[in-house]
Amino acid sequence: LSIDQRIIDKVLDQYQIQNATSDDKTVLKEISGMVIERAAKLTACAIVATLKHINKSTTDCSVGIDGSVFEHHPSFRQRLLKALTGLGYDIPVFLTKDGSGKGAALIASGLCKSK
């Protein structure tokens, strides 16, 4: 079995789906690919909108991302980079752990300093 077939079989087993045909598995793979492609494009749009909002150029920034899809999906990072490049933003993206906690700490720090 190919790695794709093993992943599909694992997902089907996880959700206790039995007797899936080869065609069912092909459709599942295609739909999953469409969903992850859409997720990468929406993520790229959110990143670009944020960078435009704070007036950051593509030469002086990089983006840290915290999340299991970014960390574990085998093609999400490449799809995200392709989507960013398609929007004119050739910027590095990297995995960061506990991004939510760090972001909350930065916001709290900024609020304390502004008072």
Walkthrough of the structure:
The protein has helices at 3-14, 22-53, 68-72, 76-86, 99-114, and strands spanning 63-65, 93-95. 8% of the residues are buried. The model has no long low-confidence stretch (mean pLDDT 87). The chain has five helices and two strands; from the N terminus they run ααβααβα. Helix 2 (22-53) crosses helix 4 (76-86). Helices cover 66% and strands 5% of the residues. The chain is mostly helical and 115 residues long. The protein is elongated.
**What's the number of extended β-strand segments?**
2
- Which structural class do the helices and strands define? mainly alpha
Low-pLDDT stretches: none
Q: How many H/I helices?
A: 5
Residues in helices, as a percent range = 55-70%
Evaluate the radius of gyration: 19 Å
Mean pLDDT: 87
**From N to C, what is the helix and strand string?**
HHEHHEH
Distance between the termini: 61 Å
Strand content: 5-15%
Q: Looking across the biggest beta sheet, what order are the strands in?
A: 1-2
Walk me through the topology.
Elements: H1 3-14, H2 22-53, E1 63-65, H3 68-72, H4 76-86, E2 93-95, H5 99-114
Helix pairs in contact: 2-4
Q: In brief, what are we looking at here?
A:
The chain has a two-stranded parallel sheet with strand order 1-2. Helix content is 66%, strand content 5%. It has helices spanning 3-14, 22-53, 68-72, 76-86, 99-114, and strands at residues 63-65, 93-95.
